[in-house]
Hints:
This protein is an alpha/beta fold. 34% of the residues lie in helices and 15% in strands. The strands form 3 sheets. The chain has a 7-stranded parallel sheet with strand order 3-2-1-4-5-7-10, sandwiched between helices. It has a two-stranded parallel sheet with strand order 6-11.
Amino acid sequence: MVGNKQMTILVTGSAGLLGSAICDFLAASEVPFQTLDLNPKAHPGATNHFIGLATDQQLVQQAIGGVDAVIHLAAIRNPNYGTPVAVFSNALATFTVLDAAASANVKRAVIASSFSATGLPFGQLPVELPKLPIDESFTNQISDPYALSKNIDELTAAYLTKRFDMRIVALRYPYIGDHIELLPKRYAQFAADPSLGKKELWTYIDTRDAAYVAVDSIVNEDIAPGSFFVSANNLLGPHSAQDLVAQFYPETKLSSSHGKFDSFVDFSSATSALHFQPQHNYPNEMS
């Protein structure tokens, strides 16, 4: 998969769950990378580590010097971790990083968008969900600052892609979890009370698949830019898609061909554009 070991990648938000997994993957693949994070502790495989905020233009420009691509993850991860103004600063960080990349003639970038761009998980208004599964044609229902910031991120990526002939991929990640601790815990919660997963449509992605698609979207030559949903193949929890729709979304039309435990996210666009195919489904894989 990693075809160009001479490519150097900047990873922002490198100390987080996904950032750490991506750095581990790059190190194992012998791809040079450097990192930017508020956490002063560097990944042992990083060739250089920059400490600070992704909104710091001077620091970001310094960090981007000498790299060939950027994976931008640094952000406040949901609206419960800051004020609306603080959460919306995510959009400034994305612009700062991608604009610096464009100025440095760095043509490839991946950014962490989110399933939350739909407005469903944290929305403050009633949800309209005409059909399932959802895909990129879904009309986002923005009523919270986090969803707004993610939509601005995707517009920023589209603008810079067109303006500077870049190849920027925005990955709409759902809940990201590892198969040792986080996914088992969340599975048990949804098993006991499926209403807990309603706003997120019981979607998830294994950390390993989340890391793989980010790196592959950088190093693979045959990739199309854009914003894409990614997901595991299945719903998280023991309840069937049909039962969940009947109980929580009775007015929603479920595709007649929808499998019993298939994800409510149609990620076929990511399969076509990014060759994405999840390899890890919980609880089918326990190791």
